[in-house]
Specification:
By secondary structure, this protein is of the alpha+beta class. It is 17% helix and 36% strand. It contains 3 helices and 10 strands; from the N terminus they run E-E-H-E-E-E-E-E-H-E-E-H-E. The chain has helices at residues 22-25, 81-92, 111-119, and strands at 2-8, 16-20, 29-33, 39-43, 55-58, 63-68, 70-77, 99-100, 104-108, 125-130. A hairpin with a 4-residue loop joins strand 5 (55-58) and strand 6. The model is unreliable at 140-147 (pLDDT under 50).
Length: 147
Amino acid sequence: MKEFIHKIPVSNAIDATITLTLEQRVKSRLKAQLDNGEDVGIFMQRGGVLEHGDLIETEDNFVVKVVAATELLSSIYTTDPLLLARTCYHLGNRHVELQITQNSIHYRHDHVLDEMVQSFGLDVISEQLPFCPEKGAYTSHSGHHEH
């Protein structure tokens, strides 16, 4: 079984892809399958997250591209930036992971949260989309900062 042990920034050749949900991408140790069905193990540094488009590699330089799987999300679309910001504030206050764009917010489908968002006058639709939420202020990065 191939074992993926680290991320790499670029590669001239990608040997395969692996499609993972967010729940899978946050795990540092994971048994999974490449998109071609081959069983693999992922052994990443703890505290990291595999992002859509990341490249991971085995010791013998087999490179795989990570693809964010589609998941059932609640989606809100609006061109009103203040309403978008207010909605992000209220969802964030409930520690909800959010994927935010210029005109939309996406979070894991939750009918209770959907009702709250609808009370702000917004429409909520359920969609199957790749989920790539904001990393957040406390996400570890490659460097360590002393405070």
